[in-house]
Design goal:
The structure is a single chain. By secondary structure, the chain is mainly α. The protein has a single domain (about 25-160), classed as Ferritin (Up-down Bundle), CATH 1.20.1260. It contains 5 helices and no strands. Helix 1 packs parallel to helix 3 (about 95-100), helix 1 (about 25-50) runs antiparallel to helix 4 and helix 4 packs antiparallel against helix 5. The two termini are about 30 Å apart. Bound molecules: fe (ii) ion (2 copies). One fe (ii) ion binds near residues 41 and 70.
Length: about 160
């Protein structure tokens, strides 16, 4: 798996805690984590569409359509990091989402897991946007657009499996 330009934690290691959000480094820590979650989502959905044969009609296609959106989310955040001069590989990130995804044995298990991860990411995006709305409207707008897409992604688990966050 190619995770460039990210630097992964050593197996079993936790990533360092994010620094103060008032510092550029702290914002960078949050952007890096968010961008890496998006890249893991790209790989997770790409993997899931061919891995599971027990999917309800239409779900695989919905996941397939989502992949370019996850790619776009990742690209938007990485682009913003570049504008702000934040180095992607400066701090290691944890491939926890990807590792958990690979443990899923059924399409349902995968769908519920990834929806809960997307919902956590969505909530973090809402918090970040709120914290930045006055000081960094450009980053805030990027997260607002991601959060809007993620609402539909999370809704797939409700539509197909009756899941509620
Ligand atoms: Fe996303
Ligand atoms: Fe998503």
């Amino acid at each position: 798996m190619n995770w460039e330009p990210f630097d992964l934690c050593a197996p079993g290691q936790r990533p360092p805690r994010p620094r103060d959000i008032g510092l550029l480094e702290g914002l960078g820590d949050r952007l890096r984590t968010a961008a890496f979650a998006e890249l893991q989502a790209v790989h997770a959905f790409s993997w899931a569409v061919s891995r599971f044969e027990d999917l309800p009609e239409g779900l695989g296609e919905d996941w397939r359509r989502q992949i370019p959106q996850e790619e776009r989310h990742c690209a938007l955040i990485l682009e913003r990091m570049a504008e702000l001069g934040i180095e992607v590989g400066a701090v290691p990130v944890s491939p926890r989402i990807w590792e958990s995804v690979r443990d899923c044995q059924t399409g349902k298990q995968f769908c519920l897991y990834i929806a809960s991860a997307e919902e956590r990411g969505r909530q973090a995006g809402i918090r970040l946007c709120r914290a930045l709305q006055d000081t960094d409207p450009k980053t805030c707008a990027i997260f607002q657009s991601i959060v809007d897409d993620e609402e539909a992604h999370v809704a797939l688990a409700a539509t197909y499996y009756g899941w509620r966050p």
